[in-house]
Every structure is written in structure tokens, then in C-alpha cells.
Amino acid sequence: MYLEDTIAAIATPVGCGGIGIIRVSGSDASIIASSVFVKQGNGGLDSHRFYYGRIVDPLDGSLIDEGMAVLMSAPRSYTREDVLELHCHGGYLIVQRVLDACLRAGARLSEAGEFTRRAFLNGRIDLCQAESIIDLINSRTDMSLAFAQSQREGLLSARLKEITDSLRNALALIEAFIDFPEEDLDETALNRIDSLVQSAHNSLGELLESFAHGKVIRDGISVLLAGKPNVGKSSLLNALTLEQRAIVSHIPGTTRDVIEEIINIDGLPVRIIDSAGIRESRDEIEQEGIRRSLEKLALADLVLFLVDGSAPLDTNDRDLLQAISGKQFVTVVNKSDLPSVVGDNELPGQTEIVHISSKIGSGIDQLRNVIFKKFVSDGVMSSRDHVAVTTVRHRDILVRALAGLAGFCSRLSSGVSGELLAIDLRDSLSAIGEITGETTPDTILDIIFSSFCIGK
Amino acid sequence: MHSYDTIYDVIVVGAGHAGCEAALAAARMGCSTLMLTINLDAIALMSCNPAIGGLAKGHLVKEIDALGGEMARNIDATGIQFRVLNTRKGPAVRASRAQADKQLYRLRMKRVLEQQDNLHLKQGEVTALYREGDELKGVDTRSGIRFMGRTVIVTTGTFMRGLIHIGLTNYPGGRAGDLPSVGLSDQFRTLGFEVGRLKTGTPARLDSRTIDFTRLETQHGDNPPQPFSYSTERITMRQVPCHIAYTNPRSHEIIRSGLDRSPLYSGVIEGVGPRYCPSIEDKVVRFPDKERHQTFIEPEGLETVEVYPSGMSTSLPIDIQIPFYRSMEGLERVEIMRPAYAIEYDYVDPIQLHATLETKLIRNLYHAGQINGTSGYEEAAGQGLMAGINAALRVQGNPPLVLDRSEAYIGVMIDDLVTLGTKEPYRMFTSRAEYRLLLREDNADLRLREKGHSIGLVPEELYVGFLRKQEMILAEQMRIAQTRLSLNEQEMAFLEEHDLADIQRGTSLEQLLKRPEITYAELSLFDDVSRETRTDVREQVEIQIKYHGYIERQKEQIERARGLEHARLPEELDYFSINGLTTEVREKMQRYRPDTLGQASRIPGVTPAAISVISIALKANSWKTLKGCE
Question: Percent of chain A scored above 90 by pLDDT?
């Protein structure tokens, strides 16, 4: 157990609520505070006082969010250790980034129930309290097994299983030649080690990339709202999120930047991206917005092709349809509260058509349902591309695993002996095992005995 | 039942490789010890292959030696071919192996036992443990004598309800030519032990006069042969080669033609066999594409014509065995002297043991060797030694000796067994040891001598020699760290040749040796003193430096795990009463009943979160007890 080090975790439920709280506990809490939080004015943080300031990346000082911080010096804190709380905006992404900043500043991601354990061990709470909190943690874990989550994690585990299978096969080869020098083993099998580890290395790299670039659903399946200006994209975003976030006006081109919002559809996190209306424009700022939209278009998992049902289709609509023709999309006919002039036969026939009115809120539930079904059918997520590393913890682990493999590859090429190579592989495997919950040496023996004829 | 008038400190049931080490350890530690065996002529008999050591097994033998056991010295005195395996790989995975003269091996061991003070050898089949109430008091034998003892170590090998199979013929036996042990395992069942069934097999013994060795490959041992024991100066036995033969497609055809009469494939055998030691029919069935299987023809001794074809065990009927062995090149005329057979036997799931090898159900009862589901002489000997030590420590009222996974292969093996149990015959592999780089053959003495000495197993003169070696290693490490290079022209040229041109004047010998391009032997070019260094000292200095980074990494891992390994779980802990554990974890903990949190963490399905919850509950328990408010 690591009772002395400093741990960090997100203290608020993920993905909901207006405020996210990241809690840090341990002797380094105040050091971490000084590297991730820049308060207004001079001086450090006094204990038990709330400060307003900027939460920044400890490495390059770049802004993550504006927020509040409070430092509670031991023993007057939840764990009786020094505790730092950072309060930031409640979006899924921002909270993860703030946590990430704390980890980079030297904290370790806490294990389940670790804050409570410390509180208990330090005599802050009694056993009854500790137990009831642990129950709560466990019930939350049960909830986390709820549908969408389990699908995502199931897919991640499936990818990790492919990776660990490759690594285990490579390790089994190495171990077989260590433990059975007197067997008549086929030495050409050793040539497979390199390619097995390389493929695992590449897959791990891809997974990590999925975290870094958000290609996949770290922060939701990405759904792009595309439509010509003033067709009602921002209103639709608001209707989907039930919150006035995008600036809504009837002046075409109001949305100049890309706005993202995470929504939850029956447990499936969906990142809705509102984009600048795509049209020919001479306004430079707006052009930049359009450029970004087109970039986002390439990365989106699903496009909502939005048309105005109260006005005839024009060339802007058709150009846009052209632009998204290679993507998976749903046609959304907005303004169904007004008399319709666009017939379904004028719209692309290969996908669903949903009639909505973001103004009066009709058809929104149906649209949510259609989006959900696009990704989940018969309880299985449809695309392999949607596997993603979604948490900082997983990313940390995979970074460690990848480092082990990089070490392995360089040592393999410099001709290092098998028992040393095995250490790198085992480190990587046991790291991944922290996500999947498995790694026993016996599985290696299973592979050896099933792939080699061993026995004297 | 006639009660014998002596009360022994330790009674050892069985005189195989586990029993011998157990009895010697207990007697050497000063306990009055009785060894009971079904057959006094079969002490330390090698029932299967005539060899000691091999990967991970050689490690076990050296550890046994370091602790003060006998196996290493016994093979050194009776070995007829010695080889170090994996010499092309690093020191951690090099291992010693030796062919034994099977008869000399058992005779020498018998002599050592007979000459040991405090040790009595008697022939007798133990049929039951004798208990008064719940307390273990001794053992009953078939001949009607009851022996009283404070502790009992059971090492029954393959003898409990042993059943020998040759084709569809089967008959009770503990080993070909010996009676089985009947009654004991039934009593174990009645007492609540989980008793299972395992299977193993052995090849035919062949008449070497009917083998054409000129058509086989010859494999010689190392010259000079390297001994196992730290106390053996050199090997004096005459050394002989082994030979290599191969099966061919026709051999496999013959095997297939007999599968319908295989007890294994017709379902007669219910016991689970070892995957790493499959019978030839297993190999042929599981790897149909493999065109040939290798066999080492190993001599059974210097004075016998019997030879052992390794890896060619079978339970097929004799009329298949004969043409099968004769199908191999060079063996066309071979005569079988003893047929191959499979044997099924009872074992007691070792999950029911503490790490001391004492059973959890019955105090003062210890199990060691194949009864715990292991296979192999070395595995048996390692357990026997630890059971003997712990029984003796119990009698003396001293704390037990448990070796950690980071200290010894013996520790890894016993922890695996008692933590996870086993469903197939368990054999040691280096891959089972997570701290493999630290657990080397070459440093077994550095790891374990001290322990062996402190419990009174390592005699003073050996211990003094060990201390001397330890000092010399330290001194040499200091010396090369402080000695700096002056570099004359010849030395510079050498460095350049070896891609070491960046090494400068004033660099220490240690720094130089850290470079992979150079070995300790090459230091002599720069340094006269190193030429004088003793081989075993130089080996340690070199390994410590070459493996330094890895060794440090493993030591860190050990440090991190230490907290868990030392957190003991009380026997009475009720996992169903701990809030926050999943049902799966509760059931596993209740079933496996690990002694420490470290063991618990190795049980598949027991998650890190569960370990946290249990450790909280542990603190709470001790806290409650302290406050007296249970």
C-alpha cells in the first residue's frame, strides 16, 4: 500500500453537473497546487480559503480552465492529510484534463476507495462510515457496468486482449527457449517475436492516439451538426443539450467557432459538434470557422445533415450533401413547426429522415433514438473504430506498457538475452493487466504447452 | 495395536526424495526422528528418469544445498554426466543437470541417513494417523505397531492408492515392483481433506546391448564437470555420454494403431497428467504434424545395461510398446527390460496447507512432495527440506521458516502450491519466478546460507567458508569501484578495438565493466589484481555489475510488494461479514483462505480494490480489539 504518496481523483460524477471537483490528498498537495493553480494576486494559498484563478498545465503553463481552488492542510481535512480541491467547469473533457494536470504534477491516480481508506486509517471516520462509503463506491462500480459503459469497455478489452495475446505469444516463445533448452524446438519460431511485439506496439500506439486526438469516443461518439447557415444547428444543439450554450441568433454565420457538447443518450456518451454554417463566405473569421468545420467533418463518426424544411433546398444544401456523401449521416429536417415545402423524395434516400422542430422541441427524442441506434444495434457497438481509451488512468497504464515495449524492441535488436527481454514484456503485460484484471504466469505455460511439443 | 515405547519429535512417512531431506533436516536440527518406509531397499530411488537438475530444478537443488540439504552432495558423489544448460544465455537462466547412477544414488543416500545421529530408519507401511481427540499423536502401521510422534511429515509420493496401467491391464502398486499405500488417503478424506487424483508415466527401460549406438548422435557432458554443491570440490565419478534417437512417421503409425487400447484415450485413467511431460501417444495425437520426436537415451548407471529413453513414456499395451521402441533408428533390435507404464495416485490439494507445509486442518501434520501434487525429485526434495525444518522448529518452539517468493525458487513453489493449489502435477519453471534475475543458481548461497546456518542446518566450517567468500566479493566490488584506469597505448588500442574509445583516463574499473563490450576476464589487461580473483568471487562481481539495472528494478518491485506480503490474514476472518466485497471475492477468499494479503492478491479474480477493502477490514479488526469494543 502506498500510504505516503499523493493521490488524485475526480470527486464528482463524470459527465454531469455544472461543476467538476478534482481532489488531491497527500503530502505533495500544496506543491501540486502551486504547479497547476495560478491564483489572482500574489502569494500562496492559505488553508481553508477559496481562491479564484487559472488551472494550468504544469508542464507548459497553458490554460486548461478557470476555476476555484481550496487547500485544506492536515489534519483538518477529509483524509487528515493535506488536501487540495480544484473546482472547474463540469464538462467531461475539462475535468479529465484537470486531473491529468494533477497527475503530471506528481500525483498518483487513486485506487477505488483510497481516499476513504486514508480517512479511515487516519482516524477521520469510523468503520461504519468507511463501510457505507465503500458500499457506495461499489454500487457506483456496478452502475458503471451499465449498458453503454460496458459496451465501450468490452470493446476496449477486446482490443487489449488482441494486444495481450500477441505479447503473451511472444513471451511464451521467449520462455519456451529459456525453460526447455533440451527440447528439439524449432528455432525459426523465434523470428515471430519481433512481428508479434511490433504489432502489439502499433495497436497500443493507435489506442493511445485515440486518447490524444479524440478520434474515437474518449469524450463521446462525435456527431457533427452540418447544414447551411441559419438552418438551426445551434438551436438543435441547445434542444439536444437542454441548455443555452451556443449563441443563437437569426443572423447567418453567428457560430464562428466549433462548439462541442457532451450529451448522454441512454448511457452512450455522444459529443455533439456544432459547426460554423458551411457556405461560401468572404468574412475571414467565418472562413476559418468553416475550415474547422470541414476538418471536423472528416473526424466525425456521424453527420446530422440539417436542412430547413420550410424553405426549398438550394445549392448550399446540395454542395454540403456532396461534401458528406462519404460519411455516415442522418438527414434532419428542421422547422417542422412551419409549413413544409421540402418533400422526402427530394432528400437523399439511403438514410433515415427525421423531422424535428428545435424551436418547439418536437422530434428530438426520435432523433436521439436514431443516433443511438446508429451505433448500438443488438447491444453491440457497430464499429471497431469506436474503441477508445477513455480515462486518464487507462492512458497512464498504456503509456507505461508502450514504454516497456519500446525498450523491448530496442533491446531485441541489440541482441539482449531472453530472460532480460522477458522482463520488459512482463512489465507491459502486467500494466495492461491492471485494466483487464488478468495476468498469471500460468497462461504463458498454457501457450507454451499448446504450441510446442514439450516433454522428456 | 502395539505402541512403541519411544516418542519421536518428528515422524517422516516415506523415504523418497522429500522424505530423505525432511528426515535429515529434522535429525540434523537435533530432533529425534523416525523415518518409516514401505521398502528400506528403495530409499531415494529414482522412480523415473536417472537425472537431477535442469532448468529451475537445478536452482532448487542449489537452494537445498545452501540451506544444508543433501541432494546436491548426493548427485555430486554419484553423477555420471554433468552439464550446464543455457550457457549461451544469461546467468539467471543457466542451470545444472546431471545423470545419476541410479543405484549408487540411492545407496549413498541410504548410507547418509543410516549414519545420521538422531535418525532411525524402519520398514513399515503407515495406514493411518493416530490422533487422541483432535490432537495428532503418531501413526499406525500395517504390521500393528503404533509410533508416537510430536509431528508427522507425510511424503507418500505416488504410493497412496497407486494404480499402475499398462494398456488396459491395471493393478495396484506404488511403483513398478512396490506395493501401494492403502488406507491413509481414505483417512485424509474422512478428516475433511480434499483428495484428488493425478497421473504420471515412465518410459520402458531398454537393454543397451541391443542398441546400435553407432547410429545415434552422442552427447557428452561438460569437461570438467561442474558440481552442484557449494561444498563439493570436484567430481570424481567416471563420466559417460548420452545418446540421441528420434521417432519417425512409422513410429507414430504404430502408436496410433494402439490408441484404442490406451487407458488414457479409452477413459480408464481419470487422473490428470502433466502437460510438460506428455506420453508419446499424447505427443503424437496433439502434434500430428511433427515428423519426429527426440529422445535422449540416458544410462541408468555405470554397472548396468539398462537405459532410459527420455520423453518416451507410454501406457500403451506391451505389444505396441515393443514395435514402437524398435521403430526408431538404431533401436531395431532393442529388448525391453521393464515395460513403460502410467500410474495414478491420490494427492491432497496443497491449498489446504500453510506456507510452512503444515496442514490447515491438523496441527503438527506436514505434507511434502508428490502428495502435494508436484512432480520431480527436486520439487519433492525442496518441500521435504522445508517440512523437516518447520517440523523441527515447531518441536523446538521456534518461529517457522518461510521463504519468500523473492528469496528462493523453493519459496515460489510453495507459495504457488499453497496459494493456488494445483490440478495437474506441478513442476518448477523459471518463468514461474517473477524475480528470476535475483534467483540464480550462482547466488543460492548468498541468498540462503545465512538462513540455513541460523536454524542449525549449515555446519560451522561451511558457514565460515561462506562468510569468507562474501567478504571477498565485497572487497573486490570496492576495489574495482576505486581503481582507476591510467591507460597506456596498448590499453588505448584495446579500447578502440572494442568500440570503447570514449573511455577516458580516470574511469574506474567498475565503470568500464559496466559496458556490455567487456568482460571481467578482459579486465586483466588493465589490472593485475583481477587475475588473482577466485572464480566464484569474480562471477558474483561481474553479474552484479552487468545485471545492475535489472537487479535494482526487481528489488524495487519486491519493496513495493512487501507490505502486502507481510500483512497476515487472521484464520478466523469471516469474508462474508466484510462489507464491500463481491460475492466472487468472498467465495474465493473463503475457499482459498490465504495466510497473507500478498497471497490473496495472487488469487485470480481477487482485484486490487478487494485487497484495499480487506486491508481496511484488517485495520478495523485490530483497532476494535485494541479498544476492546468487539
Answer: 12
Tell whether the model's pLDDT for residue A431 goes beyond 60.
Answer: yes
Chain B CB contacts of A454 under 8 Å are 275-276, 278
Best residue in B48, B244, B248, B276 to probe A by mutation, most A CBs within 10 Å?
B276
Query: CATH: 1.10.10.10, 3.30.70.1070, 3.30.70.120, 1.20.120.430. Which one for A147-214+390-451?
Result: 1.20.120.430
Q: What pLDDT digit, counting tens, does each position of A43-74 carry?
A: 788 999 989 999 998 988 888 888 899 999 98
Torsion-angle region of residue B144: left (phi > 0), alpha (psi -120 to 50) or beta? left
- Tens-digit pLDDT profile for residues B449-487: 999 999 999 999 999 999 999 999 999 999 999 999 888
Give CA separation, A162 vs A168, A209, A407, A408, in Å: 10, 17, 20, 18
- With an 8 Å Cβ cutoff, are A137 and B54 in contact? no
For residue B9, pLDDT beyond 90: yes
Percentage, residues of chain A above pLDDT 70: 68
**For testing the chain B interface, which of A179, A443, A444 should be mutated: the one with the most B CBs within 10 Å?**
A179
Q: A83-89 and A63-72 as β-strands: parallel, antiparallel, unpaired?
A: antiparallel
B604 with A456: Cβ contact below 8 A: no
Looking at CATH, the fold of the domain delimited by B460-551 is given as: Arc Repressor Mutant, subunit A (1.10.10)
- Give the chain A residue whose CA is nearest to the CA of B86: A181
Say what the pLDDT of residue A140 is: 37
Chain B CB within 8 Å of residue A181 CB: yes
> C-alpha grid cell for residue B125?
507401511
- Global ipTM: 0.86
- Whether A181 sits inside 8 A of B85 (CB atoms) is yes
Instruction: Give the whole-angstrom CA distance, residue B182 versus residue B192.
Output: 18
CB B616 to CB A120 under 8 A? Answer: yes
Considering the four listed CATH numbers 1.10.150.570, 3.30.110.170, 3.30.70.20, 3.40.630.30, the one that applies to the domain covering B567-627 is: 1.10.150.570
* Beta-carbon separation of A441 and B432 below 8 A: yes
CA dist A455 to A449, B49, B203, Å?
9, 12, 12
Query: What is the distance, to the nearest Å, from the Cα of residue A110 to the centroid of all Cα atoms in its chain?
Result: 18
